[in-house]
Amino acid sequence: MDFEKLRDEMVENQLVSRGITDSRVLHVMRKVPRHLFMDESTWYTAYDDLAFPIGEGQTISQPYMVAIMTELLALKGDEAILEIGTGSGYQTAILAELSKDVYTIERIQALSEKAGEVIKKLGYSNVHLKVGDGTLGWPEAAPFARIVITAGTPETPEPLIEQLSEGGIILAPVGDRFSQQLLKAMKRKGKLSKEYHTPCVFVPLVGKYGWKAD
Ligand code: SAH
Predict the structure, then answer these.
(1) Is the N or C terminus of the chain more exposed, i.e. has fewer CB atoms within 10 Å?
(2) pLDDT above 90 for 55
(3) CA 172 – CA 185 distance, rounded (Å)
């Protein structure tokens, strides 16, 4: 399969056509090999317009969702980012391309390990992985200029707001367990000013400040 060609088509047909315009985001979406973050038996679907199962009941996000979240983060390249929900590591790699450091937390150890291997193989040295409850944040590495939650949450976890820099941006799919809306909030004088963007469907954020485990 010509993965490079499939990526170019994905960028035109799924991203540009839906209004993604940030050239840096489009560039890295053309560059990062999404298929390597998936099981080899599913590579044929890696550039389709879909979220896809990655095991442990979790999913790799739809390319469009990764692109719009990255665009909304408005990265300049010098940021420390906290990502909650490493999953496959695909969004992690996209963020690593466009920022200084990415701190990423995943609650399922097997997924974190798999993601870490791919991240290492691709040569990203600015990614820091941790296994645990991301709703508590990563206080030792705080503050963060950007925080992105890639799982659906009832509200923005309080510890994460505390660990966000003044002027920083936090993105989170906020809603119920089955559907959410993408919230972008900026921290100004300790308070969040909120904007709501696209409707979305993410697997649940499970943790102390998220949903309870089943
Ligand atoms: N951006 C990832 C999305 C993975 S799905 C990708 O494209 O691959 C969301 C991930 O969040 C799942 O792997 C899930 O296990 C993880 N997750 C859920 N609750 C969490 C929590 N409290 N802390 C850390 N990770 C969590």
Answers:
(1) C
(2) yes
(3) 9
Residue 39, ligand 1, Cβ within 6 A: no
Indicate the residue type of 169. Answer: I
Q: What does the pLDDT read at residue 213? A: 87
Q: Name the residue of 205, 208, 214 whose CB sits within 8 Å of the most ligand 1 atoms, as the mutation to test its pocket.
A: 205
- Please tell me the pTM assigned to this model: 0.98
DSSP class per residue in 46-103: TTSSS-EEEETTEEEPPHHHHHHHHHHT---S--EEEEE--TTSHHHHHHHHHSSEEE
Catalogue all structural domains in the chain, each as residue range(s) with its CATH number: 3-200 (3.40.50.150)
Q: Is 210 in the pocket of ligand 1 (CB under 6 A)?
A: yes
Please tell me if the CB atom of residue 61 comes closer than 6 angstroms to any atom of ligand 1.
yes
